[in-house]
What we know:
By secondary structure, this protein is of the alpha+beta class. It has a domain of 168 residues: Alpha-Beta Plaits (2-Layer Sandwich), CATH 3.30.70.2660. Helices cover 18% and strands 40% of the residues. The strands form four sheets. Strands 1, 2, 3, 4, 9, 12, 13, 14 and 15 form a nine-stranded mixed beta sheet that branches. About 8% of the residues have low confidence.
Amino acid sequence: MTLEDKWRQVRLKVWGEHALFTRPEMKVERVSYDIITPAAARAILEAILWKPAIRWSVTGIDLLAPIRHGRSLVDEQSWDMAVTESAARPLRTTSVRRNEVGAVASTDNAIAAMRRGSGNLGLYVEDERQQRAAQVLIDVAYLIHAQFELTPQAGPEDTVQKFSEMFRRRAAKGQCHHRPYLGCREFAAHFALVEHGQDSPQPLPLDHDLGWMFYDFAYDQGRQPHFFRAELKKGSLTVPPWESLEVRA
């Protein structure tokens, strides 16, 4: 491994009390994947450091805490939370209230309003509010393995070492552009940098077939979602390269 390759690679420990990585086939009554998706991991890295000159790639994810599900009702405005534990049920049930909206702003309406110079683009939450249940993960912790590449937008002064030091400095100080989150913005993520030469947290010795998992969107293909067959081996998930035949649209 060259020194530049070493600079490209980062390890970041992330953890939080709750997480929701929604399976796309269950978006109405949300059900989480068993672990963090590559797209959600990338979003955490970009929350710490995003520049047009670099592009993040997640190469692996280690599971550091047991997989625990809870049935939840979440409310973004009211954080009254009741947690009950029963000896008859090994899973912890979290009860929160969450309101979502059943519509999104229309692109066509926005374009028409721009052409006319006026128009009502408002989305009235009171008219569109829907209360939905969700199955969330509880007390999660992961070790993200990632690397970055320079993009065509990188200038002559942009180097791998420059961005490597920038990311490590920001991660070590807890700095971020916005608060990183675990799937949904109300589930904040804590993070800590694992430096080169520093002992990594050991993954749980778990083998588990996760099935087809969402990888990320291909934004140059109209946000086409891509998937890959995910499998935990001794607590570690190897994420194939984006160009790999294992990644399918």
